[in-house]
Amino acid sequence: xxxxxxxxxxxxxxxxxxxxxxxxxxxxxxxxxxxxxxxxxxxxxxxxxxxxxxxxxxxxxxxxxxxxxxxxxxxxxxxxxxxxxxxxxxxxxxxxxxxxxxxxxxxxxxxxxxxxxxxxxxxxxxxxxxxx
Length: 132
Description:
The chain is mainly alpha-helical.
């Protein structure tokens, strides 16, 4: 008769334990944050991109306000030009209306837009740095 085949011993099963990947980094540590704090080239690029986006928003707001304020002399000269063509118009109510009703709300809207844009830029940068 043939000899019975002997069973090979089963290899011992081992469980590999270790720190989960998500817990390997210390809390609050993100690669971008370390790049910035160590002042590497990549960190400099991150900060520079934030500064550029903030500058872009500021220049847009400034250009809008410059156009508004720059056009005021033309707008305020309009009643005088119209008065020379027809019956005499008082320029005072028009000036008050232009300055009080037209200019201030537009300036307020531009300022509000700028603040919201700056906060959004900072929020996006924070998400980038924290790795969310």
